[in-house]
Design a protein that fits this description.
This protein is α+β, with helices and mostly antiparallel strands. It has helices at residues 24-38, 98-116, 190-203, 247-253, 279-282, 287-294, 331-335, 376-390, and strands spanning 57-59, 85-93, 120-122, 128-129, 137-142, 181-187, 208-217, 268-277, 346-347, 350-356, 363-373, 397-407.
Length: 423
């Protein structure tokens, strides 16, 4: 078996008996027993379940649905084709103990690997919960404040991991911004993603609390090529993304710079933007006016300079009136590598719809803009500054939440997310 392959899945995972209200020492002792016991040849494999929390365990059951390996060089959920549903949660760490933080990361890792394998889960009462695979991926990130000195990690912080600067169109709500830790759960079944986050949040009890959480949706994955995601404006979103498995993807997303601490290499940065959209106002525009604002046709997604959806932008082409066919303030032109010194992003967007706010009477809906980059300052910031200052879309969109996270490399079987940070 390759060291990056997922280990054989156990038929049964036993549950250890632990005190209802353990001391920190007893919790760590329990976790060490679970972790190291799982690595012994012939020993029962176990999921880490911090003592005194949910007491959940894996039970027998046949895996079902699509399987995305959890273990690997990079975390799943980035280069993986995005499935239909997202559940994203950001957490504030409440402990100041580095040992507790390590316990939490170990627990999350082993639970995530088990969930990804499609095994049934039982709660503290022993009642099983079915959690089909359904292309489930769980991706973990560290916010800037993990490196603020509480855990003695300030000297190991990824370079460039800091809150985004203010942009001209920001109207940020602190309640849906920031966070010490993040979990991105994606699945073709909304309930799978939601239940995975709920379970991982119970593992964190006493160590971290949910700061904010948001669900999103997009087109379902189907046989063959997945159609390009459409946002709530009705336009295709992510057409210009670098293709998976290419050098363009690697040079956009994965950190390889020798200027970064060695443990950072193979990871990436996630810039999360919660963008509220005034869909009703947008729909007062004619389709031609909408297309001018975007720079692409609404139906096919082809650039206004001609061709099909995946044709390159021709920014030099003029229309019959002698003006750029792709307007200078159109969204795709301002976001294109051609006008940003070659900088590009991996867009992994999801729509959201929280319904009508009873206080304002307006509908809360829009785009969860997840952008993965290897350098925030050179890629994300200049593109967003240009868009915030000139984008013809700005009257219809408002960033209301913002967060940045470092997404560490993946881990080998038997390891855990972020392990090399603490080595």
């Amino acid at each position: 078996m390759c060291e990056w392959e997922a280990p054989p899945e156990p038929d049964v995972v036993r549950r250890c008996s632990v005190p209802a209200t353990p001391t920190t020492h007893s919790r760590r002792s329990f976790l060490k027993t679970v972790v190291f016991g799982a690595g012994v040849v012939g020993a029962p494999s176990t999921i880490i379940q911090p003592a005194g929390r949910s007491g959940a365990r894996l039970t027998t059951g046949q895996p079902s649905g699509d399987f995305v390996p959890f273990y690997g060089k990079h975390q799943a959920g980035i280069e993986t084709e995005p499935p239909a549903h997202l559940e994203f949660a950001a957490y504030d760490v409440t402990t100041t103990s580095v040992e507790d933080l390590v316990d939490l990361l170990r627990g999350w890792t082993h639970a995530a690997a088990a969930f990804g394998a499609g095994r049934s889960v039982a709660d503290a009462s022993g009642q099983p919960l079915s959690l089909p695979r359904n292309s489930l991926t769980l991706t973990f990130g560290f916010g800037p404040n993990v490196f603020d000195g509480r855990f003695g990690l300030s000297q190991r912080a990824p370079k460039g991991l800091q809150p985004l600067p203010p942009f001209a169109t920001d109207q940020l709500d602190a309640a849906i911004s920031g966070g010490d830790l993040a979990i991105q759960a994606c699945s073709n079944d909304q309930s799978v993603a939601s239940m995975a986050i709920e379970h991982l949040s119970r593992i964190a009890a006493g160590l971290a609390v949910v700061r904010w959480q948001q669900a999103g949706f997009r087109s379902s994955m189907a046989a063959g090529r997945v159609p390009t995601f459409r946002n709530l404006l009705g336009f295709k979103d992510g057409t210009a993304n670098p293709a998976s498995g290419t050098s363009a993807f690697d040079s956009t997303v994965w950190i390889s710079s020798s200027s970064q601490p060695s443990w950072v290499r193979g990871g990436t940065f996630l810039c999360f933007r919660h963008i509220q959209t005034d869909v009703a106002k947008w729909n007062t525009l004619s389709v031609p006016d909408q297309q001018v604002a975007i720079g692409r046709t609404k139906e096919s997604g082809a650039p206004l300079s001609g061709g099909s959806e995946f044709s390159p932008l021709n920014l030099q082409k003029l229309d019959a009136n002698g003006v750029p066919a792709i307007p200078i303030d159109s969204h795709v032109r301002l976001a294109s590598p051609e006008v940003n010194g070659g900088a590009r992003l991996l867009r992994r967007g999801y729509n959201y719809d929280n319904g009508v706010n009873p206080m304002t009477g307006s509908r809360e809906e829009g785009l969860l803009f997840l952008a993965y980059v290897k350098d925030i300052d050179k890629q994300f910031v200049p593109i967003q500054q240009r868009l915030a200052e000139h984008d013809r879309l700005n009257p219809f969109i408002t960033p209301v939440g913002s967060a940045v996270f470092f997404v560490p490399p993946g881990c080998r079987r038997g390891g855990w997310i972020g392990e090399s940070l603490f080595s």
